[in-house]
Amino acid sequence: MDRRVTQPTKEQVRAYMSAREHAHRPPPAPQDIRRQLGWTLAPPEPTFTLIKLCLLPATLGQLAAQATWAWCLAPLRAEPEVVQHVRTSA
Questions:
Q1: Per-residue pLDDT tens over the stretch 10-67
Q2: For labeling, which of 5, 25, 38, 51 is most exposed (least CB within 10 Å)?
Q3: Beta-strand (E) ranges in the chain?
Q4: Terminus-to-terminus CA distance in the chain, angstroms?
């Protein structure tokens, strides 16, 4: 996720819930609750995006290695009847 979430403290949530418990009204919309508690999305950090971009080749290399291993080891994970059939027909 590109953004960090800033969350309210437990004390803030408890105080809010206590105030809501004594108010005999329907609960407000989620956006209003987030605004009252200061629960917002922080803007993304440009350095984090740059780091993710720099790690892309390594991520693609890991994906290629995993796919290669899965392809090489696929016959070992085949069902025993299929392996037996392949051995007898060869």
A1: 888 888 888 888 777 788 888 888 888 888 777 767 777 777 778 888 888 999 999 9
A2: 25
A3: 4-6, 40-42
A4: 51
Contacts of residue 38, defined as CB under 8 A and 6 or more positions apart, other chains included, come to: 6, 8, 12
Type of residue numbered 13: V
* Amino acid identity for residue 21 in this structure: E
Token pair of 31 as six digits: 């956006």
Q: How far is CA 29 from CA 26, 34, 35, 37, 67, in A?
A: 9, 9, 10, 13, 46
Going by the DSSP 8-state scheme, the letter that residue 3 receives in this structure is: S
Counted residue by residue, the chain has a size of 90
| Sole residue written with tokens 């590109």 | 2
- For residue 45, which phi and psi values (nearest 5 degrees)? -90, 130
